[in-house]
Design a protein that fits this description.
Length: 342
């Protein structure tokens, strides 16, 4: 069960593109190009020991983002941490070696070095803060609102996006960061911590992914025009020589709007985006959920109804390894929120 001990000191963005035969990967200002074809990429964060990518693939994702679990791969803490500072010149030459090794693989996509000030060329240094807040209460985000954000990103020219998390989960044992911390990663994700489809979210997003994939060509090649149709409604047209695809977004959070666009009347609900793959007929609206809704009912354990039959014993817990970074005693009377990264 050691593999389920997760410490996210460093998150490695490692997309596994499902098209395994694709080998020429490059990019331009519009999108990632795989074997000469501009692609839009829908990705989701999954902890690889928790689930296979199958349900993500069925949900219309092209890629998964996954992690290196340092406590499994690096049993001695910070064995491979940021080496520049503590190792001085040796650290510097090691980083240079890494950069050259990565570059020599000539994979055609930019390399990014996270949290490494002064990263050597050809690395792209980004002051990325791998910040993670743990210990939140039960998060909830509606399928409609999530779909709105994703659709808006693509309306504005985005071509690669990732869900954090796509499959949530719980870390059993006191391994998430310390004492008194909630250990759920559920995040109200499209796949819940038991691996069940969180409906209607999973299905509503799948429909969005399918529509976005169907207009991949216009999204990645079309000339883009935007037009304000109303105080809160904006039309965005992606126009190629032979095809066009449109988005109609209504940013008013409370008021539905009727607009005329290209001679056709459209009803755009409050806080929603309609996607018109041919700029005429709406194929998807982020606020109209047609996916099946499922209700998961958490039932209390039967044993809790029969407390008399339970025998409680108490024993002290060995907490050396669970206390703050393995050091020192802690005493708190509240939930601890630990932030990773600096
Ligand atoms: C990969 O694609 C780029 C851009 O489409 C092209 O210039 C290059 O020759 C291709 N490389 C290989 C090995 O096919
Ligand atoms: C939404 O629309 C209503 C009615 O037109 C208007 O009163 C309100 O100010 C709008 N809200 C925003 C945030 O634009």
């Amino acid at each position: 069960m050691k593999i389920f001990k997760f410490f996210f000191h460093v998150v490695v963005f490692s997309s596994i593109i499902f098209h395994v035969n694709a080998h020429n990967v490059t990019h331009d200002s519009r999108s990632i190009i795989i074997d000469g074809t501009h692609r839009i990429i829908l990705s989701g964060s999954i902890h690889y020991p928790r689930s296979t990518a199958q349900k993500a693939k069925e949900g219309g994702l092209d890629a998964v983002e996954t992690y290196v679990f340092w406590n499994a791969h690096e049993p001695i803490e910070n064995e491979y941490g940021n080496v520049m500072k503590p190792y001085g010149e040796d650290g510097k030459s090691y980083i240079n070696w890494c950069a050259q090794m990565a570059d020599s693989m000539d994979i055609g996509v930019p390399w990014i070095m996270c949290q490494q000030a002064g990263a050597p060329k050809p690395m792209t240094p980004i002051p990325l803060k791998c910040e993670l807040k743990i210990g939140l209460d039960d998060p909830l985000r509606t399928a409609e609102d999530l779909a709105f954000s994703v659709a808006r990103f693509f309306q504005k020219g985005g071509t690669l996006q990732n869900y954090y998390m796509y499959h949530g989960g719980t870390n059993f044992g006191r391994t998430l960061g310390g004492l008194y911390m909630t250990t759920s990663y559920d995040y109200n994700a499209p796949l819940d911590e038991y691996g069940n489809l969180n409906q209607p979210k999973w299905g509503h997003l799948k429909q969005l992914h399918d529509v976005l994939h169907s207009i991949e060509y216009t999204l990645t090649h079309g000339d883009v025009h935007t037009q304000k149709l109303d105080n809160s409604v904006t039309a965005t047209v992606y126009q190629t020589n032979d095809k066009s695809s449109c988005f109609l977004s209504n940013s008013n959070t409370t008021t539905d709007v009727n607009v005329n666009f290209g001679g056709i009347d459209y009803f755009v609900p409050a806080w929603s985006i309609s996607i018109l793959p041919d700029c005429r007929k709406g194929a998807y609206n982020t606020a109209n959920v047609y996916a099946q809704t499922s209700m998961m009912i958490k039932k209390s354990n039967k044993a809790e109804d029969e407390p008399d039959s339970l025998k409680w014993t108490w024993r002290p817990e060995l907490i050396e390894s669970a206390s703050v970074q393995g050091k020192g005693d802690v005493s708190v009377n509240r939930i601890v929120i630990k932030r990773y990264g600096k």
